[in-house]
Write a structure and sequence with these properties.
RNA-binding; 21 helices; single chain; five-stranded parallel β-sheet; about 575 residues; about 10% strand; alpha/beta; 13 strands; Gyrase A, domain 2
Length: about 575
RNA sequence: GCGCCCGUAGCUCAGCUGGAUAGAGUACUUGACUACGAAUCAAGUGGUCGGAGGUUCGACUCCUUCCGGGCGCGCCA
């Protein structure tokens, strides 16, 4: 694919231009305007050194290349300060054959991460609370990054850092003991649990002493009280069951669950370690690690009452992941509001002497904004739930199917695939760093740049392949493609591996979503201008091969985003 | 007050490590289905890239500053 093509071109040019192939490779770029060819080489950088105007250099280099033109180049043309290369269609077709048609299971894969492990902490909800649309975002981004890492050859461990510890469990246990009779734990355990949570906070507004009862009950839990511990375990179980059900809707499953409670007996040793390394400083009765930048607040390690804190737990957890689980890279898919916290934690780890601290990254994502509501608050039960969003999308897709394709078989399954795909795509198509204004109309818009648009494009491919009369579409080209739309599509398909590489490099799934839209737009143009099946249903087999390749790429890229690719819709 | 992030077409957003006339979708105006599936395609209208300086052969991209929005800032997680 593109990586290979660039390398090959760079190697060939290297001897002709007497420049190191690496420096050519890193300068080669894809022109925005397709009329400028497939790859461009800007020569501005040489102007000063060679004391010549860029257009002159471009002209001279072009002449040099033309005198001994590499086999893969169809045309090289100087244009202002650029050397524009148009590659031979036959070469591109051969390239598609070897990298896509001959090995569909390896499309876009790289060995860049081979032998390395990456642990990705994502989704990580808090026990007893329903997952909100914010968790949905964390989940789809995290899962996409898992998939991207796998495509780069990494061994991936998707980790659920479940919020299963803290005073809220004292409150919850206390609330359960008081009011459990009023709720139907048998039939709807999770809803009941959440109802208790909301009720406790409501009543605590009026009767602040409830908070003390909660704190006392939590102390019992901490000291291993049997009854409370049993309750706690049960709450965790109820919650995990609910989360697994929701994740299953998105096709998500973590490889490992390590809740906060897992680190309970590692907190003291971690503090000891910090103390031994002389990093702890007393401040207002608490123990902190000061940061290098004086403007940055210090990292709180131990409260004045001796209890540990959020940061302590994350430090212990990072050490566990990187040292015990022997991870090479540690990723945290957590909202931007935690930016300072992770900066502090990573700096502390670095001060502790862990060289791998630089391989820990906070993959932050923007917050949902709400027009009227302000921030969501699960305490007050004001929250847009993960499941509502997904279910609404599925319902709407059902209506659309009823209207557009009432004959469709297994409507429910396809409605789910399309509805879920729409939700995932909608979340992944924008840069994760940006805040998003929640708007039902936008979430449920399935036209234009959207998941269903991509799925529909693939459905059209599938439909063609079905109607072609081939049992299996031809995996080889017979003649050189002539249609300009076909050649352009071919070129876009070949850049898939480069897209995956870039997407992983900056941990941004929207790169892949944007690419999918590019492929679909080009396919649609190609489709509109070229007759692929003629009147007698005889086929233009080379175009069919291209259609098949398009579908393979679409399905692979959709898979990276964890979106299904139905055959019909 | 301090720190970080964002500010591109009416609206929602792309624009990778600075590169050739700033691109999609949506909305609006047109045109294309007795169908290779119109959840589509083609065309048009629409942008002083928040403002002002600076660096550079070249700035939406880098630096400074201001404005607007978001998030965070020691005993919650």
């Amino acid at each position: 694919m593109l990586t290979l093509i660039k390398t090959e071109l760079a190697n060939q040019l290297s001897s002709l231009l007497e420049l190191p192939s690496e420096s050519i490779l890193e300068r080669l770029e894809s022109p925005k305007n397709p009329e400028h060819g497939h790859l461009a080489f800007p020569v501005f950088a040489f102007a000063k050194e060679w004391k010549k105007a860029p257009p002159v250099i471009a002209q001279e280099l072009a002449d040099k290349i033309k005198a001994n033109q590499p086999a893969l180049v169809a045309q090289v043309s100087p244009m202002s300060g650029f050397l524009n290369f148009t590659l031979k269609t036959q070469y591109l077709m051969d390239c598609l054959k070897t990298t896509v048609l001959d090995q569909p299971e390896n499309i876009g894969r790289s060995q860049a991460g081979a032998g390395k492990r990456v642990i990705i902490d994502y989704s990580s909800p808090n026990v007893a609370k329903p997952m909100s649309i914010g968790h949905l975002r964390a989940t789809v981004i995290g899962q996409a990054i898992c998939n991207l890492a796998k495509m780069q050859g990494f061994e991936v461990v998707g980790l659920n850092h479940l919020g299963d510890w803290g005073t809220q469990f004292g409150k919850l246990a206390w609330a359960y003991q008081q009011w459990n009779q009023e709720y139907d734990f048998k039939n709807s355990p999770f809803e009941s649990l959440f109802a208790l949570y909301v009720r406790f906070h409501e009543e605590a507004e009026k009767r602040p002493e409830l908070n003390e009862f909660g704190a006392e009950t939590f102390k019992k839990l901490e000291s291993g009280d049997d009854e409370i511990t049993q309750l706690w375990k049960w709450f965790v179980e109820i919650s995990l069951k609910e989360y697994d059900r929701l994740w299953a809707l998105l096709g998500v499953k973590h490889d490992l669950v390590r809740g906060e409670s897992f680190y309970n007996d590692r907190l003291k040793p971690t503090e000891k370690l910090l103390e031994d390394k002389g990093l702890l400083v007393e401040s207002d009765g608490a123990m902190v690690v000061p940061m290098d930048d004086p403007k940055m607040p210090p990292c709180l390690i131990r409260k004045s009452d001796g209890a540990s804190l959020y940061a302590t737990r994350d430090i212990a957890s990072a050490i566990y992941r990187m040292e015990e689980l022997k991870s090479d890279i540690g990723l945290y898919v957590v909202g931007v509001d935690q930016t300072l916290h992770f900066k502090q934690v990573f700096e502390v780890l670095s001060k502790m002497g862990y060289a791998w601290a630089k391989d820990c990254h906070h993959i932050s994502f923007g917050m949902y904004q709400f027009k009227n509501m302000g921030r969501m608050s699960s305490r007050k039960g004001q929250i847009i739930e993960f499941e509502d969003v997904v279910q609404k999308a599925i319902e709407l897709v059902k209506e659309i199917i009823q209207e557009k394709n009432p004959e469709l078989k297994s409507k429910d399954k396809i409605a789910e695939q399309v509805g879920v795909g729409a939700i995932i795509f909608n979340d992944l198509m924008n840069d994760r760093i940006k805040n998003v204004e929640f708007d039902w109309d936008k979430v449920l818009d399935f036209e234009g740049n959207s998941g269903p648009y991509v799925q529909y494009c693939n459905v059209r491919c599938k439909s063609l392949l079905r109607k072609s009369g081939y049992k299996q579409w031809p995996k080889t080209f017979q003649n050189e493609l002539k249609s300009p739309e076909a050649i352009q599509l071919l070129w876009i398909l070949l850049s898939y591996d480069d897209v995956l590489k870039n997407g992983y490099k900056i941990f941004k799934p929207h790169i892949i979503a944007m690419y999918l839209l590019d492929v679909c737009r080009q396919f649609s143009t190609f489709y509109a201008k070229n007759k692929i099946l003629n009147e007698n249903d005889m086929v233009q087999s080379d175009l069919m091969t291209l259609v098949g390749a398009t579908s393979l790429i679409l399905e692979s890229a959709l898979g990276v985003l964890n979106i299904s690719a139905p055959n019909e819709m």
